[in-house]
């Protein structure tokens, strides 16, 4: 009796020795459309990497010619009538809880749920010709991963309404001009550029990277006055917790940088 081939992993996680982790949505024949189990696996991947002290930055990408074409509509009822309050299996909720910076490496299409996952990233690198498409209005699907609220805050309400209500593509080039995408590069350079940025982040003070991401993201949920107060509160909390030795190391690090010496904090 022949043994059946091993089941293909649909969510791949690779850890690099430089502190960078790569998550790949690996269902290319279905343009990386998501089943309920894939969403849960993706959520848990982010949760595990967030707890892993060896990981400093996470890159998220898709295999094949699409980043993610959204939810697998053949399993729509199973997905949409599931427990929407189950944070453990909620991909976007776990991405939003993740303290590590998340870089989305987008090739091809990011459609609806894929668009929302891209919105949950902290930075985006996209290939030339990549497209972000919101099909909620076309197919009668109510958004639940933040697209109706986040996109307008990034690209402006009028453009967001056009993108969502017409279900017309937002190209990577336009998204870059509007401040949604950080860099647009050739398709073969997407991962390389994402790794370049991840490498720059991983060389910095990891504790401060986590604190900085947190205060930026938390501040975005507030008006400017309260966000500035939050920054000041977090700064006082940080400096009051520092020891004399830590201040000494900071001064040595700054002095070393200023003189061109290599120094680590």
Structure description:
It is a single chain. With 265 residues, this protein is an alpha/beta fold. It has twelve helices and nine strands. Strands 1-2-3-4-6-9 form a six-stranded mixed β-sheet, sandwiched between helices. A three-stranded mixed β-sheet has the order 5-7-8. Helix 1 (36-51) runs parallel beside helix 3, helix 6 crosses helix 7 and helix 10 (206-220) runs antiparallel to helix 11 (224-240).
Helical fraction equals 40-55%
Strand order of the largest sheet: 1-2-3-4-6-9
**End-to-end C-alpha gap:** 60 Å
Largest sheet: 6 strands, mixed
Give the number of DSSP strands: 9
- Rg over CA atoms, rounded to whole Å, is 20 Å
Which consecutive residue ranges, at least 5 long each, have pLDDT under 50? 1-6, 261-265
Globally, the shape reads: globular
Give the structural class: alpha/beta
Count the helices. How many? 12
Mean pLDDT: 90
* Order of helix and strand elements from N to C terminus: EEHEHHEEHEEHHHEHEHHHH
Please indicate the percent range of residues in DSSP E strands (runs of 2 or more).
Answer: 5-15%
Show the helix and strand layout:
Blueprint: E1 11-15, E2 20-25, H1 36-51, E3 57-62, H2 76-80, H3 91-97, E4 102-106, E5 109-111, H4 113-119, E6 123-127, E7 131-133, H5 136-139, H6 147-155, H7 157-166, E8 170-171, H8 172-177, E9 183-185, H9 190-202, H10 206-220, H11 224-240, H12 244-258
Parallel strand pairs: 2-3, 3-4, 4-6, 5-7, 6-9
Antiparallel strand pairs: 1-2, 7-8
Short summary of the structure?
The chain is an alpha/beta fold and 265 residues long. The chain contains twelve helices and nine strands.
């Amino acid at each position: 009796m022949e043994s059946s081939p091993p089941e293909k992993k649909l969510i791949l996680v690779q850890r690099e020795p430089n502190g960078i982790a790569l998550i790949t949505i690996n269902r290319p024949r279905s343009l990386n459309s998501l089943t309920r189990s894939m969403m849960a696996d993706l959520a848990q991947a982010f949760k595990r990497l967030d707890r892993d002290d060896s990981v400093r930055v996470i890159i998220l990408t898709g295999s094949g010619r699409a980043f993610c074409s959204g939810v697998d509509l053949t399993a729509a009822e199973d997905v949409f009538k599931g427990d929407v309050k189950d944070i453990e299996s909620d991909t976007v909720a776990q991405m939003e809880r993740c303290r590590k910076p998340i870089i989305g490496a987008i090739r091809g299409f990011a459609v609806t749920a894929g668009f929302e996952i891209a919105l949950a990233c902290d930075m985006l690198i996209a290939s030339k010709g990549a497209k972000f498409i919101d099909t909620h209005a076309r197919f009668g699907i109510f958004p639940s991963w933040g697209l109706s609220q986040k996109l307008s805050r990034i690209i402006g309400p009028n453009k967001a309404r056009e993108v969502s209500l017409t279900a017309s593509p937002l190209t990577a080039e336009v998204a870059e001009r509007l401040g949604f995408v950080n860099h647009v590069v050739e398709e073969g350079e997407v991962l390389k550029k994402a790794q370049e940025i991840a490498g720059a982040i991983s060389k910095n003070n990891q504790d401060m990277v986590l604190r900085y991401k947190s205060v930026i993201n938390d501040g975005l949920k507030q008006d400017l006055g309260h966000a500035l107060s939050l920054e000041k509160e977090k700064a006082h909390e940080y400096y009051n917790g520092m020891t004399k030795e830590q201040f000494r190391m900071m001064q040595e690090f700054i002095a070393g940088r200023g003189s061109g010496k290599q120094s680590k904090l």
